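Standup notes
- HV: blocked on the assembly model, inputs below
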Amino acid sequence: MTPAHEFSSDLIVKAANIVRGLSIDAVQAANSGHPGLPLGAADFATVLWTHFLRHNPKNPQWQNRDRFVLSGGHGSMLLYALLHLTGYDVSLADLQAFRQWGSRTPGHPEYGHTPGVETTTGPLGQGLANAVGMAMAEAMLAARFNEADFPVVDHYTYVVATDGDLQEGVTHEACALAGHQQLGKLVVLYDDNHITIDGATDLSFSEKVLQRFVAYGWHTQQVDGHDPQAVYEAIVAARENTSQPSIISCKTIIGKGSPHKAGTAGVHGAPLGEEELRLTKEALGLPPDEAFYVPANIAEFFGEAVTRGAHWQAEWDALFSAYEQAHPEKATTYLNLDKVPAQALDLQTFTAGEQVATRSASGAILNQLAPALPALVGGSADLTPSNNTLPQGATAFMPDNRQGRYIHYGIREHGMAAIMNGLALHGGVIPYGGTFFVFTDYMRPAMRMAALMGLRVIYVLTHDSIGLGEDGPTHQPVEHLSSLRAMPNMLVFRPADANEAIVGWQQALQRSEGPTCLVLTRQKLPVLNREVLAPYQEAAKGGYVLVEDDDYEVILIATGSEVSLALAARDMLNDRGYRVRVVSMPSTELFDAQPQDYRHSVLPPDKTARVAVEAGATWGWQKYVGLKGQIIGLDRFGASAPYQTLYEELGITAEAVARAAEALLA
Amino acid sequence: MTPAHEFSSDLIVKAANIVRGLSIDAVQAANSGHPGLPLGAADFATVLWTHFLRHNPKNPQWQNRDRFVLSGGHGSMLLYALLHLTGYDVSLADLQAFRQWGSRTPGHPEYGHTPGVETTTGPLGQGLANAVGMAMAEAMLAARFNEADFPVVDHYTYVVATDGDLQEGVTHEACALAGHQQLGKLVVLYDDNHITIDGATDLSFSEKVLQRFVAYGWHTQQVDGHDPQAVYEAIVAARENTSQPSIISCKTIIGKGSPHKAGTAGVHGAPLGEEELRLTKEALGLPPDEAFYVPANIAEFFGEAVTRGAHWQAEWDALFSAYEQAHPEKATTYLNLDKVPAQALDLQTFTAGEQVATRSASGAILNQLAPALPALVGGSADLTPSNNTLPQGATAFMPDNRQGRYIHYGIREHGMAAIMNGLALHGGVIPYGGTFFVFTDYMRPAMRMAALMGLRVIYVLTHDSIGLGEDGPTHQPVEHLSSLRAMPNMLVFRPADANEAIVGWQQALQRSEGPTCLVLTRQKLPVLNREVLAPYQEAAKGGYVLVEDDDYEVILIATGSEVSLALAARDMLNDRGYRVRVVSMPSTELFDAQPQDYRHSVLPPDKTARVAVEAGATWGWQKYVGLKGQIIGLDRFGASAPYQTLYEELGITAEAVARAAEALLA
């Protein structure tokens, strides 16, 4: 269903000018915000939204909608204006409350907060990389679920990206992979305006962007971003090329319409000011004394999106109904992709006494999960054999194998994490991805976005400490546990043994409201004997009493590989006549979320003789041991040597734990 | 001075095979390591080291040496073998102790640990980006210090980079900037072997790398990396092009020489095994039963580096002596670049009662520091006007203005941080660079390298909390203070007012052993009245008693903008009849480094009624308030609204602090 109107550049420009007016009025009202991008990009964005974007404003959750990502999130008013005009539940009052507490129109677009916002953007590069993930999800689900005559998954992913997005390394990673993967239904409109905050891009940015994208295997075009007809034709060509992702360089003038500020860095991130606002409206042919002006004909023009959306949705609903008849099993699977049934989490336990690295346990667990959870899509940043992330029988997602459920992300941790966000945002996919724990540093901006958006993304983080051994301090995490625990809504889970790793996976999959770090050893660990220790299922509480002596005098708290050290220290202390409780604390976040009664039962306030042991920074452990407790940890970088030597030399030993306990009891 | 020998491909290959033998023997002895890169890259690396690299093995600190960076640090044995053979203080015994505790040959090359290692590498992409910084430093210092007939700064920077380096986003950022900056004396040898850990690069990496570098403005060539003559000619051409950085794609076979493993992922990161080791030596024409074999003629060939190095150094010493005569002032400045004289740190104080954002204070401080410290080189990741990082009168470092001391890094935080490491490693430059505090997430891998290497790098991190306001949660740091405090050897300093900001800069500049984060407000803060409060210089101790009532009952601890809140809370508490001590804690690291006596004088163990307030994650503050204390912080993401509203709505107020104190005293 195409628009009722013939294509009219004149009408597009008039409509775009209304988007401009709304944007600059909102920024002025807030006395804060970024008019430059909406003014510059309004023309080509209007072409996209009125002639191409297949969406249903009255049902932003329609699964087969085209995805639209405003990667330069600072231009949020462009998006809010378009959402408002095309009939989303974003009112004029919402626009007027731009950037105010509790409004639907925060400074940068926020997923889950404003209907029609597909991802949270603002930190540059993230949105474009998310879009690569969305396009991957579409290609994968289409291959797996579509049948002849039933293209139930069939949509485009559109992006508006800025100079800043393209300078950021994460988009290099994601776009190189998008080219490799030949994601033909990804279309990027590059707002090529040659201005950044510091000034003209010639201060720092002189690369030939399109040539770079040719090198990546993309389809490239360049147009005048203020010429609707040219933009229209370019998008048609981009859509028609379904074997390559497309980037269209839309040459624009930042702040277009502002007589004194257009084309300057000054229009990027500050309100125009009352006088320039007025002059801009005059230049755009808008009534200078009217704020938030929307004439009826433009309201109607944009408002057609509602009719079209209803039509598209009805078409698709009918298609899907027929699909359910013809392919009931596939349809059921498709509809239940995002669900994690309890039986899928019923996993084989590991046998006490065996020596199993928790990364190996994770691999074994994945072999069971992958067949049971069709939404699960794995990958690794080129550490597949080390991360144990490839389930038996899984094949690689590739241009000639779109059904593959394993993504070779390459040595692109940041790109991986941002793409995983896009996979999760698309829906129908539960992504997990592996790398060495230390390289969470590379992924951190995207991990934060997952936490902020509340996405079910699972990080398989192996080689979790000096236990890595010979690779040395560049590869040995030290501060990473502590620094990720500090991040809101990030669940960190470091299992003590293979069976606690089961609980880690269960928690991660059941947690639909945010991401999880599974922090796993390289080295082998004993599978703990649960006949004498508490059941491993207790790990779901984050911290639990693993074993204790009657009338214990001291509490040893440990995570991961150091739980075995704590148990050995208990033996030593018992031999020396002390009575000990040992607490396994795989997740401080889960423990903190327990009722106070429970927490006090594990760490009674009157039991202040406490020793924590973890092969990482001590920062934060005072929360559990208090000012009088002791922490056996590592407040320096590691070193290169066999791991047993490192534990000895760096003083993370059962003896050190026992001695610390004795000192407290002395 | 050229080699005594005519160029002989045959000799090069024989020499390279000795490098190969040492590498695989060391990996086998350690039973750990990466033979693939040394075997693959030995030929072209040997060409570089025997025919181009101008260095002095007996004085690795010679300032005008060529820099060599092995960006793929996992191939460390390649570098160690070359260092050993060319006469550095890296013995055969050191090679034999590869990857062992205390050895000079750790798993990845470590700066400051092994003579001749110019930077720590391993986390991919960092080394190449460091090299961009080294080449920038060379260009800048050459422009500032060279005079006609006195090219005292005149060297190349060479890099061996891998597929992984080029996939990482940080090299996109750094290399795009290197092209923009036309760093003609940067030469990258790309070990183009089409293998990564997951397998062939066609799993994830199909871009046309050289075309991408053409887009960046680089000079590109492609050669057979096993053809010494071709490599030689390509390096000659690369050196001759001094207006563009050069990349030479050296097509190689990973693990070359290993009959069964060459060309496979299996040779990347695991020892060959005894049998394959033997077969490889046979294939390479090495005695299969001899480990660490170096025949006399090859020892002599590589050993010529010592003679050449002594000659080059002597030439340069003579040149510099003449330069000292002809240009004594410049020579003195040059020789003292890395020193920070006390008088340079004698800074104007700010007047009590004024309202000054600490980012503005930092800008004013920089206006005084820049003229006094010629080594100081600033920059920003495209947030110059927000970070206040451009000193008055400073000009941009550009191809046509190499004397400029300000670098427009573009929207490339990670590239900036890694380039700053390179600037610092080169010497003669004390780099600082600005971005929003939240975007330390993007820089974190490079910040960790600065901490690990102990580099004097200064991060100017503005917009340090929800005080940022309307830009919302994507731009509001929450967990960043805590997460950076967890990092070893990272100094975090968050001044309470403009005068504490002076101390922050003093500490950062005097700290030659590691990096510093200066964490600064967007919003204005009152300059505290030091007539009634403790002198601001006390901030150098990291934490100090700002003010107190006799017989105080409760301690309020605060950092940065929240110190003013704590002072207001004290007033409230005084009004309610409570007696209060207020501690300003701009740096927990500096405080922790004080003697226990001092720490106990500020936070007496018997005074357990303590409230900490900081507009960030509470994680870690228990270290100072204990289990019985209270922390007013933020364990959620922020929101978009004017900042005063955010402080109110999120409960970070003087009233909340006062109430928490009252609750403790109740």
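- HV (later): unblocked. The longest strand of chain A covers residues 186-192. Chain A touches chain B through 111 residues (CB under 8 Å).
- Next: hand off to the docking folks.
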